[in-house]
Design brief:
This protein is α/β, with parallel strands linked by helices. Helices cover 29% and strands 21% of the residues. The chain has a 7-stranded parallel sheet with strand order 3-4-2-1-5-6-7, sandwiched between helices. β5, α4 and β6 form a beta-alpha-beta unit. α4 packs parallel to α5. The chain is globular.
């Protein structure tokens, strides 16, 4: 059974208290995210890492504080979450090679990672049977990724001890909707000690 990990938006602006749009307690999951990513690399499991890549005058900033502007420190991923062999897939049609890398970093300018036009061929090329999803924030970008992956008809799991939210209630509601839609809730330990092959 082929597994793919999805590391959602673990960027400095979101996961560290000094970040522009810090998700409460998100700093507490950085080590877990790093461990999951390293586990994936050690076991030949591809990691898709989504990242916001905004312009300075992005329309999204009318609703949210400016964050993850391309070229800023806040847009970067914490070093521990990066894998050695990686490629950045921009938010426009491209044909990057992904078969020789450990980490596919997918840029996006909207909450939903599936708005990146390259996601369909990435999903097809990875041809996974199981997706493990974690990152920030649960009720927004994590939810878009998880529910989008459920549309593949494959098993999708959210790692509940490796996600953080802006609202506890919104997180609970999102996880329940995900479970009712056929998703699976798991933990980091279970994800790596479960039925990975």
């Amino acid at each position: 059974m082929k597994t793919v990990f999805f590391d959602i938006d673990t960027q400095i602006d979101f996961v560290f208290p000094a970040g522009a749009l810090y998700a409460r307690d998100a700093a507490t999951i950085v080590d877990t995210v790093a461990r999951l990513n390293r586990y994936a690399a050690a076991n030949a499991i591809p990691v898709v890492s989504t990242i916001d890549a905004h312009s300075e005058n992005d329309p999204e900033f009318a609703e949210w504080p400016a964050h993850c502007v391309v070229g800023t420190v806040g847009q970067q991923k914490p070093a521990d979450t990066l894998l050695e062999r990686r490629v950045i897939v921009p938010n426009f049609d491209t044909a990057e090679r992904i078969d020789t890398v450990q980490q596919i970093i997918v840029e996006k300018v909207h909450l939903d990672c599936f708005t990146n036009p390259n996601m369909p061929w990435i999903i097809e090329a990875l041809n996974a049977d199981r997706y493990i999803v974690y990152g920030v924030v649960t009720e927004l970008c994590v939810a878009f990724a998880a529910f989008g992956l459920l549309q593949t008809g494959k098993r999708v799991e959210i790692v509940t001890d490796a996600v953080r939210s802006l609202s506890d209630q919104a997180e609970r509601d999102t996880l329940e909707r995900f479970r009712q839609a056929g998703g699976v809730l798991t933990t980091a330990e279970a994800a790596v000690n479960g039925w990975l092959t």
